[in-house]
Design a protein that fits this description.
homodimer, 385 residues, alpha/beta, five-stranded parallel beta sheet, 40% helix
Chain lengths: 385, 385
């Protein structure tokens, strides 16, 4: 139905792989980082800039778009791509909103039926069921939709994590039944095919992760997502969970690790067989003037850059690095000017997108170990997780 | 020395004129609106967007740039054009900072020698003399620089206004002496020729306006500016002051009316012989979602635009109108997204720049009266001064 995945190359010394995820709105070459456009805009960027930094696919958020402007407005606009000026360009993945209900909303009440919550904006009451979340994303017209899942906090007990795994499994069955039965795997708005990825839960409990994966595999027709990680755990905990999952993930489907976006975690996850990533980190830290560079993360507001007339990163090919100096961008950030936020957002996104492009080339050229070693050698000075 | 003004056409039924102001960084076709880049950035726009909206010349501010990042940093960058990514594109005019000292700074103390003031940012003490203000702008490397003047508030007494006129005249003599004698009319940074325009003061007192103009004419080698207007007075008061000045302004020099940017005031001032304008209005009101359109000013956050999938203004040729709907831009403004601010800023600037282009074409084609009539007929619905 318009989606398929080609495994182009499997690395011999790790679980890393290079692939092609074919969607009705274009081919996504993996590994891939997906810039986050929570509210139908990648923060500070225009659609042409989203494409210029090398985005192959972006993410938007069901929870936020349900609250504002509402799925009906976006449906009237002809779907999310048209609404946000990305018609006929690249695919969009929508998050289910499950994570936001658990992290942002007030007074949530979760039952087997679904989750009742109050908007973090105006306190209005809403109800998400697995079926409702599919309905909303069918209206939005995203290419890949995510089912409602239950995400537990870092530090949750085994019993809590097990309960969330079981509820997530119960909900995926309802989600897929509704998606295939009622919606026929198509957007109600665009009539184009849509894909759905189940979301593996299980907190940091390895046996629960394996149980969740096995429970969900029958529903992983298009791909599989891993949720509930990068929620505050140390890097080695993340690595260990991925080590456990890696040999058990389906090789013929894209694997999406949700909410990962620091350069180090991205590299470590690619080594463990992950194909797709998303994270607000590159645009969120841009607000404070934090800049990814091949020599580590820097804070542009520091006085040392006052009269530094070199680019943010001499190895970068982005618009900001081609045209502006650290001194100017520092001045823009010190004076709270929007252009500063724009330039660092563009740069940070390009950094992560180029990193995944480089990882892919290294996998294809049988040079992954050497690339990773050289990446860390330069980057290690400022390892902040 | 690199600057000249050609009067291309004088309208027969009004004081309006079309001209060409030749500068070392390009020809400016007048009447012209100059977007304001207070802190070396036109708020929310990138340099390529500044050019895309049709800017022929922009303004930056000496007061703000002196405080942050300081003229020495900009000199080290090779001047303001290079610092802000506008090298070899269009000319820049720098305001003297006189107006900002009077409107923004704390605890100012004015003497014949100059003005002592405290930064509105950190309370640090600074001193501007006519010579110092020329020195700073020589370092900045702008094309046109403004001398220190004394601006009085709307409602100032005749005595206060007279005193400011006399001080402004005394200061222009020192400014020009320093500019010509010490700096040889060139930037200390770029070595390129610079021009200086005296600033006519006199508050709303017509005889003082004429006195100030006559006092300053000997120093108006490159052009003349009119300051201290659009400070809260009604439109007809502005019109009357300009009516008094119009027949007395030199015809062979550009005339710059400072701080004017509403569409109505711009039209009325062109009719009274003004060639150059600047104002923060188009980007400032963008922050609140106020949009200039040929049918009047609209507030995009209003519920009536919730499902309006037309562009901001069907007669507009800007990037925002070519690619986005009112419904999307309303959503961006309601969710405080930077892209909303960007799109409305681009649109509002393009609106004023196109308006001056249309006024110029109307003057050249002997159709000014008809153009103005048709402009008001459409725009009148929301006349807000």
């Amino acid at each position: 139905m318009g989606f398929s995945f080609n495994l182009v190359k499997q690395d011999k010394k790790s679980y890393a792989r290079a692939g092609e995820f074919i969607t009705p709105n274009g081919v996504v070459k993996t590994p891939v980082f997906m810039p986050v456009g929570t509210q139908a805009t990648v923060k500070a960027l225009s659609p042409n800039e989203i494409l210029d930094v090398g985005s192959q696919i972006i993410l938007a958020n069901t929870y936020h778009l349900h609250l504002r402007p509402g799925a009906d407005i976006i449906a009237k606009a002809g779907g999310l791509h048209k609404f946000m000026g990305l018609a006929d360009t690249i695919p969009i993945l929508t998050d289910s909103g499950g994570f936001q209900v658990f992290s942002l909303s007030k007074l949530r009440k979760i039952t087997d039926e679904g989750v009742e919550f109050q908007s973090h904006i105006d306190g209005s009451k809403h109800f998400f069921s697995p079926e409702r979340v599919v309905d909303i994303q069918s209206k939005l017209g995203s290419d890949i939709l995510m089912p409602l899942d239950e995400c537990t906090a870092y530090g949750a007990s085994y019993e809590e994590a097990l309960s969330a795994v079981n509820r997530t499994t119960a909900w995926i069955a309802r989600s897929v039944k509704h998606f295939e039965g009622v919606h026929k795997q198509k957007s109600a708005t665009t009539k184009k095919p849509q894909a759905l990825f189940p979301i593996v839960q299980g907190n940091m409990y390895h046996d629960l992760r394996i149980k969740s994966l096995n429970d969900l595999l029958p529903y992983a027709r298009y791909g599989i997502a891993i949720g509930g990680l990068s929620v505050g755990e140390p890097l080695d905990t993340l690595q260990q969970v991925l080590d456990t999952l890696a040999p058990n993930l389906p090789s013929d489907k894209p694997r999406y690790l949700m909410g990962i976006g620091s350069p180090e975690k991205l590299v470590e996850s690619v080594l463990r067989g992950i194909d797709m990533f998303d994270c607000v980190l590159p645009t969120r830290i841009a607000r404070n003037g934090a800049v990814f560079t091949t020599r580590g993360r820097i804070t542009i507001k520091n006085a040392q850059y006052k009269a530094d007339f070199t680019s943010l990163d001499k190895e970068c090919d982005c618009y900001a690095c081609a045209n502006f100096t650290k001194a100017y961008i520092r001045h823009l950030m010190n004076t709270d000017e929007i252009l500063g936020h724009r330039l660092i957002s563009i740069h940070n996104l390009r950094f992560l997108l180029r990193l995944t492009e480089q990882l892919r080339q290294a996998i294809l050229g049988d040079k992954l170990q050497a690339f990773v070693k050289s990446f860390y050698k330069k980057y290690q000075k400022s390892l902040k997780m």
